[in-house]
Amino acid sequence: MPAKIRGSMSWLIIAVAMFLGAGPGMACFAWAEDGLESPANAVSGLSETPSASAVSDEASAASPLGSVVPDRETVEEAARAPRAESGDAEEDDPWESFNVRMFTFNLHLDRYVLKPLATAWDAAVPDEVELGLGRMFANVAMPARFVNNLFQLKFDGAGRELARFVLNSTIGLAGFFDVAKREGLELSNEDTGQTLAVWGADSGPFLVLPFLPPMTVRDGIGFGVDAALNPLTYFAPFAAGAGMKASEAVNSRALNLEVFEDVEEGTLDLYSAVRNGYLQRRARAIQE
Amino acid sequence: VVRTKLTGGREEGLSVEYQLASKRGRWGVVDVRIDGVSLAMNYRSQFNKIIRTSSYDTLVQRMRKMEGGKG
């Protein structure tokens, strides 16, 4: 009996440790991935697209800000009014001041630890290898996607994941190459947070924790479950597993170096930009 | 209101939707959605946060600063 308890205890500890092992990289990568990619590309991309002329026309028309600024009191009042009125009911963030502090912490972690590492890594390693490693990590994380496809009754998605895993793990050399994609078998991004949502769970408040990507309470629970479903969590010895997670973080960050920079330039308030981007993308992922 | 959808760039490709609207016979872009994230909504959220936590003046200042930096 005690042995059994000890066994499950250590499993729990490993799960928690992996959770942390996901590390700063995950956190920052997820900003880039979930929240930020879009505004960045939009802002930087605008100047290149033909339709951009329309945008900049509009912008320049409104450009002398002074001439179009509405009455200050009205605006401030509107912003402070209960959010339901503002039309976008997405922003449930009662812990904002805590979140902002954690967000700032993660941001510094990124700037002084993760980004330098990722920059060095990016310089040393060819892009193709970075992409390949990223695909390998994604390949290993297949069980979570498979299970969540099933729980959402997406049987074709589950079948695709299975087929992808078999193909890519063998012909694709442990996932380094995505051969399945060339056969038209696309990766399906399903996770436990989405499954919970499909089953009717409310997102809960927005939450930022140190070393972790931004999330809502529901998606945080899902994140823990997904980590537990990742074979790296239970097959690799702890140190190796944590090391793998750390390299995953660095590698992902290396793939997003420019993205993140563009984002910082294109935003007025990074925290709310990330929060809004994250919530919008989650809402869409759940709909799909 | 017209919607277009572009795909391109990167490995996975990125969906970009321009939402157009006509105003007094002139067509303009009112929103851009990249991979499902609406820029208009994203900026609105930023504006709200700045106004809520500091002031409207701060927002205008920051916008001016950004505008100057870009130009």
User: pLDDT below 50 for ≥5 consecutive residues: which ranges of chain B?
Assistant: none
Instruction: Report the sheet-strand fraction of chain B.
Output: 35-45%
Helix content of chain A: over 70%
Rg of chain B computed from alpha carbons, rounded to a whole number of angstroms:
16 Å
How many H/I helices of chain A? Answer: 16
Shape of chain B: extended
Radius of gyration of chain A: 21 Å
What's the quaternary structure here?
heterodimer
Strand order of the largest sheet of chain A: 1-2
Low-confidence stretches of chain A: 1-66, 83-89
The ordered string of helix (H) and strand (E) elements of chain B is EEEEHH
The main pleated sheet of chain A reads as: 2 strands, antiparallel
Number of helices of chain B: 2
Characterise this structure:
- The complex is a heterodimer of chains A (288) and B (71).
- Chain A is 73% helix and 1% strand.
- Chain A is mainly α and 288 residues long.
- Chain A starts with a helix and ends with a helix.
- By secondary structure, chain B is of the alpha+beta class.
- Chain B has helices spanning 39-53, 56-70; strands at residues 2-8, 14-23, 26-34, 37-38.
- In chain B, strand 2 (14-23) and strand 3 (26-34) form a beta hairpin.
- In chain B, helix 1 packs across helix 2 (56-70).
- Chain B is extended, with a radius of gyration of 16 Å.
- The chains are: A mainly alpha (288), B alpha+beta (71).
- At the A-B interface, helix 2, helix 3, helix 5 and helix 16 of A face strand 2, strand 3, strand 4, helix 1 and helix 2 of B.
